[in-house]
Amino acid sequence: MELLNPSPGLLFWQLVVFGSLVFLLWKFAWKGIIAGLKEREGDIESALRMAEETRAEMAKLKSDNETLVAEARKERDSIIKEAKEASERMISEAKSQAVTASNKVMEDAREALAQERVAMISQVKKEVATLSIEIAEKVMRKELSDKKSQQTFVSELISDAKLN
């Protein structure tokens, strides 16, 4: 039971050693420990401040990135819209040019047909006139006394004539 009831001398020396240890720590080590703790506290505070600044900067960068993405999408959409409009405009211009060209070709063909028609009619008239003159010439050369013989002669000439 001696361990449960310490002697007063042991208590005195323990208090002396503890007091001298506290005095030595307070005199030489207490300032360094407090300074180290304050420095550590300052480092922790600056790290927390830097983390908060970094978090705010990251949020700002994120919002800036979202704004840039939105602007890029708008620009992409406008470029696509302009390209579609240009494509449609080029297609409509090509169609109108094709219609104009086909109308011109048709008009030229109509004019050519009309000219050919006029030329053919003129050629037929010339041939008819030539044939008429030849028939009249032959009738004049041959003097026929009666009307019946003249009609038969004209009928023969008409059947002999080549109508090309």
From TrEMBL:
Keyword tags: ATP synthesis, Cell membrane, CF(0), Coiled coil, Hydrogen ion transport, Ion transport, Membrane, Transmembrane, Transmembrane helix, Transport
Keyword Ion transport carried by entry: yes
Family matches, as SUPFAM superfamilies: F1F0 ATP synthase subunit B, membrane domain (SSF81573)
Signal sequence range: none
Localisation per UniProt entry: Cell membrane; Endomembrane system
TM region positions: 12-30
Pfam families assigned to the protein according to its UniProt record, in alphabetical order: ATP-synt_B
InterPro entries xrefs: ATP_synth_B-like_membr_sf, ATP_synth_b/b'su_bac/chlpt, ATP_synth_F0_bsu_bac, ATP_synthase_B_chain
Membrane topology, as annotated: Single-pass membrane protein
Keyword Transport: yes
Coiled-coil segments: 37-89
Subunit structure: F-type ATPases have 2 components, F(1) - the catalytic core - and F(0) - the membrane proton channel. F(1) has five subunits: alpha(3), beta(3), gamma(1), delta(1), epsilon(1). F(0) has three main subunits: a(1), b(2) and c(10-14). The alpha and beta chains form an alternating ring which encloses part of the gamma chain. F(1) is attached to F(0) by a central stalk formed by the gamma and epsilon chains, while a peripheral stalk is formed by the delta and b chains.
Database matches in HAMAP family: ATP_synth_b_bprime
Function: Component of the F(0) channel, it forms part of the peripheral stalk, linking F(1) to F(0). The b'-subunit is a diverged and duplicated form of b found in plants and photosynthetic bacteria. F(1)F(0) ATP synthase produces ATP from ADP in the presence of a proton or sodium gradient. F-type ATPases consist of two structural domains, F(1) containing the extramembraneous catalytic core and F(0) containing the membrane proton channel, linked together by a central stalk and a peripheral stalk. During catalysis, ATP synthesis in the catalytic domain of F(1) is coupled via a rotary mechanism of the central stalk subunits to proton translocation.
Family: Belongs to the ATPase B chain family.
Protein name: ATP synthase subunit b
Gene: atpF
